[in-house]
Structure of GMC family oxidoreductase N-terminal domain-containing protein:
Amino acid sequence: MSTESRTRGPAETFDYVVVGAGSAGCVLAARLSEDPSVRVALVEAGGRDTNPDIRTPYSFFKLMHTDEDWAFQSSPQPGMGGREMFWPRGRTLGGSSSINAQMWIPGHSEDYRPWAESVGDLWSWEAVEPYFRRSERWAGDPGRGGTYGTEGPLWISPPRDPDPTTARFLEACAEVGLRELTQGLGGPDHTGCAVTPLNQLRGARWSAADGYLRPAMERPNLTVFTDTQVRRVVVEDGRATGVESDRGVLAARREVVLSAGAIGSPHLLMLSGIGDVDDLRAAGISPTVELPGVGRDLQDHLTLNLIMEATVPVPLADADTPANRARFEEERLGPLTSNIAEAVAFFRSDGGPGAPDLELIWAPIPFTDHGTAAKPGFTLGVILLQPESRGRITLSAADPAGPPRIDPGYFSVDEDLRVFLSGLRFAERLFDTASLRPLVSGPMAPWPGTVDDAQLVKTVREHGDTLYHPVGTCRMGPDGDPGAVVDERLRVRGVRGLRVADASIMPTITRGHTHAPAVMIGERASDLIREAV
Ligand SMILES: Cc1cc2nc3c(=O)[nH]c(=O)nc-3n(C[C@H](O)[C@H](O)[C@H](O)COP(=O)(O)OP(=O)(O)OC[C@H]3O[C@@H](n4cnc5c(N)ncnc54)[C@H](O)[C@@H]3O)c2cc1C
């Protein structure tokens, strides 16, 4: 597809130039090019999404440190024992949706209340929910997916061939009072537990590139440039007129849309002289627009995995065999269809009413240090859903064009640690239910087992990790908010013809996983852009 589409179309001038073919960028390229009278360019730094591990759900972690991964590294984290932490991000068609764990979890309706309070009803739950539904196509039993759309480009499927112990996890949740969400996790309140809804079609990954981009690539008015890194946005007389890339300038008659992700988009703004003036000067970049919020308000979901030795066979621990490969290729069955994170639960740390602040992920295999261990064990990942801590992305003064400096600021607010510890205690209780107790024996490293709070904090700092959900670095906000980078229509403040549309615009992180909201943002943005004409 790509060679032809790279040369197809007019010279180097387009109506819209979309930067980044990730979760949001694929949506924008597809939706904007629905109008045959406009010419759209989609510019992606990575290559085509042909690596077979992209298709194979189980293999998502094998894509880390490959050509499909930017493989960022954070700055040393004081809250995490001084560690520099590995931050993978997708670098191929589909972006992070081509390397992620395929979990489709839009979040809670309460997630969007502060957004609407900040910028108005364009971003209320009532306003955004139709965009989730517009993107979804439920592939499971019609009686068990009532909260999902059925006609969108993205297939949402239940696990194709789940491990038998996943049902035991749901039973354990029922024992501690969590309801099973039999209609899926797309409704306004996803407090409870469920098998994980997945971006899969018949057991293989279904990325944003599969759902949105590939069908649109047949259109003569869409040109997709792969292996083309954008270096900066060209701003002339206060207007974005195009982007400077590896292959020269790509001009935009109407708009440039940055969908380069929560790291890439603020990085590109800063490289274009848009950001905190002092920081830009310190990195040797001439400021063109003062926008101090660029790169600030970085939020992420932190996780720690409780791992227990298994007393029963664990098929996923021996997943990648020739026989399982053959089964996957021929029938799309077996452990290679597993995304590893087969079920989830959402709950509140204080046990009270209201939206959840903690999540559990059930994995029927030990998952640690961004990969699996081929040992019989089970993992309960605990996730802090609503961190108060904020981090920041800045230019590297030594090499502004190189990777930016990523400071997630984990546990810079103490309250986050308190909530997180209560989640870990909850997970310990879950392993001790009648449903799960017979499946496990002792703790497996690096989980130390039940220890006092001081030792638990030490374990968190030494082994806690990213769940790969950075957001907020080009935050949306109202007029007069000095930290706002884009307005409610995602227009970059102080520059005409420039928007940001991806996970970076989220004012606050959602209580789910961030691919679905990034797709929703792409859908919402495409309507806002079309309304502007
Ligand atoms: C390992 C991993 C597992 C995850 N698991 C899940 C999950 O199971 N469920 C879930 O909901 N979320 C998950 N996420 C997070 C989710 O995938 C992301 O939040 C979401 O895809 C972000 O979408 P985006 O459009 O903001 O950015 P991305 O999808 O990251 O897209 C950005 C694109 O821009 C390109 N780009 C960046 N800079 C430039 C440049 N200068 N020039 C040209 N192109 C550029 C990138 O190469 C990339 O293709 C996971 C992420 C990772 C990394």
Summary: The first helix runs from residue 2 to 7.
